[in-house]
């Protein structure tokens, strides 16, 4: 099939400047989505774009779809802390993402950049995700105790619940990390009497942190104050997530998706506010997390529907939020897009990588493009009906077939 002139006009060979040309002028968050995990081509695109954003547009931070607590170790390394690069990357990325060379290269380059600049200009890396994995969620106790420790160093002791009470109510970490709880709510401790009481105490501590902000912001070390807020969000978010895991109603899986994306949105919101004086932030995560529309996934017999982190953040930031989706054409020898999908039409263009104006793409394909039916559960195609909610599209013509949970 030959590409139409209108389709050719909608696309340019990929370059970072071609992407930034599509962004609203008041962008504070550039959300770059990936259509599936585990593809080095998208990590390379992200790294190339981030280097351009740092050099030409004043970006000084990146947030990735990874454990927000584990990422603290990476950021400390970027700031000059001792460590072995491979170990830092392996331990600092959740979901097994530390195994990907593109993430190693990102951290290597950021540390090298930081070695030659003032502290105020150094690059930071954040984890946007909660400490969650496919079949387990972290226990809330460690973050709750870190929050308590911070507050105890600055506030009168009678304002705080006893640390021993938090430890007693929480119990062993293994109670919270039971893998079987992902599918069996009866195996979760998230709605026990102890968990409910712990959730109330976590709310009290979080309220104390917020209500004491004038004092704490003035006397605490900025990094410790930032981390206290992170631990407050993490502890309360995990307690909500564990309560959702213990729910037995028909909305259980929807609730889990809502809780995860709300945690991501709250983390990103805090990151944007922290970085406001230093520059905009690049965010990198799955398209489904960053899109402006609601997320939809078919999971067994369940049709899941929830508001994505991107939709929540876009509601809060307005035109300060920009979303660029990525997509691919061929994956390996057996996964080819149908010719009447957006991916199939873009694959008729000869360039290996394209930057696409979604408005021109919508006009060029109006009435003749369908949503791609994925070959497996790891990919979600571009929706022709949602192009008006996208600020840009980056298209990679061909990628290899992944192995493992991201495309086996």
Describe the protein's architecture and organization.
- InterPro entries: Emycin_Estase (IPR007815), Hydrolase/PRTase-associated (IPR052036), UCP036794_erythomycin (IPR014622).
- Pfam families: Erythro_esteras.
- This is Erythromycin esterase.
- With 408 residues, this protein is of the alpha/beta class.
- The protein has two domains: 5-59 and 272-406, EreA/ChaN-like  fold (3-Layer(aba) Sandwich); 141-248.
- It is built from 16 helices and ten strands.
- The protein has helices at 5-10, 16-20, 40-57, 71-78, 85-92, 101-114, 141-152, 163-170, 193-211, 213-219, 222-245, 252-275, 287-290, 309-317, 342-346, 358-365, and strands at residues 11-13, 29-34, 61-67, 124-129, 281-286, 294-299, 302-307, 321-331, 353-356, 392-399.
- The strands form two sheets. Strands 1-9-10-8-2-5-3-4 form an eight-stranded mixed sheet, with helices on both faces.
- The two termini are 30 Å apart.
Described by strand count, sense and barrel closure, the largest sheet is: 8 strands, mixed
What is the CATH topology classification name of the largest domain?
A: EreA/ChaN-like  fold
Total domains: 2
Q: Approximately how much beta-strand content do the residues carry?
A: 15-25%
User: What portion of residues is helical?
Assistant: 40-55%
Encode the helix/strand succession as letters: HEHEHEHHHEHHHHHHEHEEHEHEHE
CATH class of the largest domain: Alpha Beta
- Please tell me what the overall shape is: globular
Kindly provide the radius of gyration, computed on alpha-carbon positions and rounded to a whole number of angstroms.
Answer: 22 Å
Structural category is: alpha/beta
N-end to C-end Cα span: 30 Å
Kindly state the number of beta strands: 10
Strand order of the largest sheet: 1-9-10-8-2-5-3-4
Mean of the pLDDT scores?
95
CATH architecture of the largest domain: 3-Layer(aba) Sandwich
Uncertain stretches of 5 or more adjacent residues: none
Name the CATH superfamily classification of the largest domain.
Answer: EreA-like (biosynthetic domain)
Number of helices: 16
